[in-house]
Structures are given as C-alpha cells and as structure tokens.
Amino acid sequence: MLRFLSLRLGRSLLTLVLVVTFAFVVLRLSGDPALLIMSADAPPEAIAAFRRAWGLDDPLWVQYVRYFGAIFQGDLGNSMRDGRSAISLVGERIPATLALTVPALLIKLCLGIPAGVYAALHRNSLADRAVMLLAVAGFTVPSFVLGLLLVLLFAVQLGWLPSGGQESWRHAILPVITLGLGGAAVLARFTRSAMLEVLGQPYMRTALAKGVPWGVAVRGHALPNAAIPTVTIVGFMIGSLLAGAVVVESVFSWPGVGRLLVVAVANRDLAVVQAILLLVAATMITANLVVDLLYGVLDPRLRNGMRGTA
Amino acid sequence: MVEPLVAIRGLSVSFDGLPALRGVDLTVGRGEAVALVGESGCGKSVTWLAALGLLPAKARVSGSVTLEGTELIGAPPAVLDRVRGGRIAMIFQDPASSLNPVHRIGRQIAEALRLHRGLDGRAAREEARRLLDQVGMPDARRRLDAFPHELSGGQNQRVMIAMALAGRPEMLVADEPTTALDVTIQAQILELLAEIRRDTGMALVLVSHDLGVVAETCERVCVMYAGRIVEETAADKLFTGPAHPYAQGLLAALPPMTGPRRPLAAIPGGVPEPWAMPRGCAFAPRCPRRAEACEAAPPPLAEVAPAHRAACLYPGAAAVVSPVPAMVPA
User: Fold this and answer.
1) Which of A240, B114, B265, B297 matches a 20 to 30 Å C-alpha distance to B277?
2) How many angstroms separate the CA of residue A215 from the nearest CA in chain B?
3) Does the beta carbon of B160 lie under 8 angstroms from any beta carbon of chain A?
4) Could B92 and A202 be called an inter-chain contact, meaning their C-beta atoms sit closer than 8 Å?
5) ipTM, 2 dp
6) Over the stretch A81-113, which tens digit does the pLDDT of each residue have?
7) CATH 3.40.50.300: which residues of chain B?
C-alpha cells in the first residue's frame, strides 16, 4: 500500500512538472506579454523596460530555471498587470468558483445517479426513454448554449432571475443550474449503463435464485458493483471543481477562477495563468488519487494490485 | 402414483415471439435424480429459470409449474422468494461470475441463512463454516473471509453448493455445474453432489450437455431437442436402448470405450432456428426414419415401453412397439 502510494505520488509530481513546463513554453512562444499588456503603440523604450523588468529578454531556459527555483520557495510570481502575487490573485477567486461548482456537483449527484439507476431498473419504459432523451440533450448541448437559453427564458422573458454578476445568491442560481444539468446528464447516462451491465451479471441471478427479494438484490448486490465505474466519473467531476466553470463563469460574468484564466490568457499574464494551471492540475491529480484509493475500497479485486504495483 | 415434488406441464417460453420452450412436461419426485440433456440452446436451462421466475421480463412464459400443488408460474414475488433457495435451490455454470465479486463468501452464504433460516451474526457465521466444511472446502473458517476472486473455479462451485444448501432445499437444480471446470474437478463436484443427495435426501436435477456426467449421477434422463422433451427413460435404458432417433444419434456420436475404434457418427444438418421451426417433428429434417406423417404435427411424448417415453412416431429398434403408439394419459 505504501509502495502504491509513493509510486502514485511520484507520478503525480511528474505530471505537475510536465503541466508547468508545457504551459511555460507554449505561453511564451504564442505571444509577447509586453506588447499585449503595454499595447502595441507604446514607446519602444517602455516596452524594452517592461521586458527587462520581468526578465523576458533572458533566454527561455534561464527564465525556466528561475521560475522553477521560485516555485520551490512557494513563489509563483506576480501578475504583470497589477504586480500583485499570482497566488493571492487566484486565491481570492477560489471561493466564488466553489460557490458555483459545489452546489452544481450536488445537483449532478442527486439528480444524475438516481435518474440513471431508475432508468436502468425500468429499461425501455417510457420513463427510461424520457430520462435518456434528457440526458442526451443535456450533454450534447454545450454549456454556453444551455446558459444562454436559461438566461433568455428566466432573465429576459420571465425576468425572475438576474442574467449575470455576483451581487446576491440569486445571481448564482442560473450558472449553478447550467453546470449541474450538464453534469447530471453525463452521470445519468453513465450510471444507467453501469447498472444495466451489473443487472445482467450472473451473480444477480444467483442472488435472486437464493431468495433475495428484488429490491434487496438491487441495493445489496447491484449498487455496490455499479458504483465502481460511476466513481470514475464522479472523481473527474470533483477534480474539475476549480476548472470546470470557465465557460459558464464567462457567460454569466461570474468573477471566479475561470474568468480570471480567460483574462490572464488573453493578456499573456504568465504568472497568473501558470498559477491557475498548477492549481487545476493539482486538484485533478488529487481527485484521481482519491478515486484510485476508493477503487480499492469498493472493489476487492483491485486491492491485491495496489499492494503490488501502482 | 405419489404426488411429485415438482410437476411441469405444457411449459412454453418465447423471447420476442421466438419460441425457446415449446410445451415441456416433466415431473420430479422427492429425492429423485433427474437429468436434462441436450445441446446448447435446446431449452434445458430455460426450463428451470422459467420455473423459478428467473427469466428476464421480456420472456413470455405459459403453462404450469407446481411445487407440491403450489403454482409457481405467475406467483407473487413473496411466494417465489421463499421457494427460491428455500425449497428449490439452483447453481449455475460459471461459478466465478455467479458469486458477487464485492462481497466476502461468508456474507453471501449468511445471506441465504438469514433469509431462509433466520440465522444472524455468530450463528450464521458458524453455520456458514459448517456448510463450507460439508462441501469439502479446505480451511473453511479462513475461507469465510475470502472474496470469490481469491478462490479457484472448483472452490467457487463448492461455495455455490454451500449457499444452495443453506436454505435446506428439497431440490437442487444444477445447471451445467461442471462445464466451466477442469475434468478432475468435474469429477469431484459430481461426487460431492451425489454425496449430498445421499446425506440429505434432496432431489437433484442435473442440466447438462454431457452424457457422461449424466450417466454417473442420475437415475432418470430426459433428452431435450429444440424446446421439447423427446425422450424420457431410466439412465441405463437410454444408454442401452435409446428409442428416439435424436438420442440414438447423440449416443452414436460418443466414442466407444470398449471394442474396436470406429469413426464417430455425426448427426447431419443442424438444429432448426427458432424462427423456422418445422410444423411437425423438429428433428424430422435430420432424421433417417423421417416419413410423411412426421411433418404433419409434432409427435406427442408417448410410452414405448414401461417407464420409457419417446416423442417419435417410429421409435427405435430397441423397443418393440407398434409404429403409432397409443397416447399416454396426462
């Protein structure tokens, strides 16, 4: 188990280094922050001074080594726009993002899993077809389209809810629903197919053949098995709690991490973009690790594997 | 005649309009060992899954299955739940996938003990251990905490049998119990089933495509073909004097254990597809004794000798009977 954990941790660190490196190179090759932040018609001396101040005229590898050195001292650099530290800039946006993604995750779980289980248990019934139709619609419609449709209906037509901003909890309703419905649809489909797979397994027939009532067999024998593939998707959703709302935050002008990312990328505000990517990668990796450990709890067949190799 | 334990009458099953069983009549007496043989798809497993209400909802089941007078077809779930495992237990072909992979085997056996004998906690665990001992599981106490994937196929089948015994059933239906196992393990499991039958007086229905397995274990054999029973007789009689040309074909396809080697005789043609079932005898297209009458209507299962019935208008040479047998009263 310890071996499994340390191997996984080592691999996670490697992933983080790769993410940081990739972002570092791509961002610097794809645009000049001096021109984007100072604007192209700024006097050449000012631009040169900006480059010198931020170390942008050093060779790429020198910048890279300097950046890594700083990371290990907990310094992710400062924003080129207002000079504040990237960590605090990102940090103060996190609560706003979580205010959308955590309630959305609850909607996904409370709507998606029961709907999927119900559809599987009533396969080919009218209810199953309705659930699946909604689910397909839910995840084929992109979130910005769904968001705009909701705005059109509830903000423009009915005037019940605000269309954007962050002034009160009422402003959060539409973005939370937009995020939640799409994810619930994905989860419903996934849960349904996992359940159908499990319901057709010989051990379900065995349970019934030994006299276990249908409902008990579903709860005691089918659900624990169907949970195994479903946990993968839920883990992915938890991993994207911070990064999963980029589009929706933009649609609803919600000042979260996602919006900060969009603005920072547009300006090539290098330190901020990298701080966000690092944070997102770290949450993803943590969630994945938790999922892997959960597999071991849920599926005894995988426990031996964990004791051995990763 | 004493009332049979289980009586199946006119049992028919179809899936999406395609027939899988076309009127099966079969009785099993208390403590009797009956085999149901036939090739894959002939309906031998479906017969018992239908009897216990274990077929998927899309299956259309008609006819009657009674357990000491209680009708099981269409019975409410509460009645079926008590019968399943409590009076008729069933074990299956692939023991490894027939056990729930996420539960320890002790828990799976204890579940049956709780349902049918009201045992819980320590009592259930102790009884589960005793059952594992009874089915010859080595180191039974430790095995209670094992998961199915930690055991071999033969051991898992022993667990299945222990679980089946947990409810003290009057009858065990073993659906191809040895097909997925190695030959040496097959013999052990068959020996175990025979031993348990001796000890408990439980009736045994063995569903198999393997005539050798059947010969060792059962007193009476029913041969099925295309959703019907075509011959029913004592096991030794079937091997010495089969009456139905299909049963004769099956035996001719077995390699002889004594005497000179001979080429094995295959039955020509194939089983008719469910959507193209002949109007008359389903075996007629492959039958060497086919006559015009065979294609008119399916022949009834009729007595060709005492305690020997065959569904054939021209039953085999072994039995001396008139070409058109008399109807047997139901």
Assistant:
1) B265
2) 11
3) yes
4) yes
5) 0.88
6) 888 888 898 999 999 999 999 999 999 999 999
7) 6-218
Give me the CATH topology for the region B6-218.
Rossmann fold (3.40.50)
Residues 108 through 137 of chain B touching chain A, CB cutoff 8 Å: 111-112, 115-116
* Nearest CB neighbour to B84, from listed A208, A298, A301: A208
Whether residues B86 and A205 touch (CB distance < 8 A) is answered with no
Residue B319 confidence (pLDDT): 37
* Residues B269-297: tens digit of each pLDDT: 888 888 888 888 999 988 888 888 888 88
Q: Is B177 on the interface with A (CB under 8 A)?
A: no
Q: Which residue of A has its CA nearest to B80?
A: A211
**Domains along the sequence of chain A with CATH:** 95-255 (1.10.3720.10)
**Closest approach of A108 to chain B, Cα-based (Å):** 26
Nearest to B301 by CA among B42, B3, B22: B22
Can you tell me the distance from the alpha carbon of B43 to that of B267, in angstroms, rounded to the nearest whole number? 19
**Cβ-defined contact of B98 to A206 (cutoff 8 Å):** yes
A210 and B81 within 8 Å at the Cβ level: the answer is no
| Contact between B81 and A205 using a beta-carbon 8 Å cutoff | no
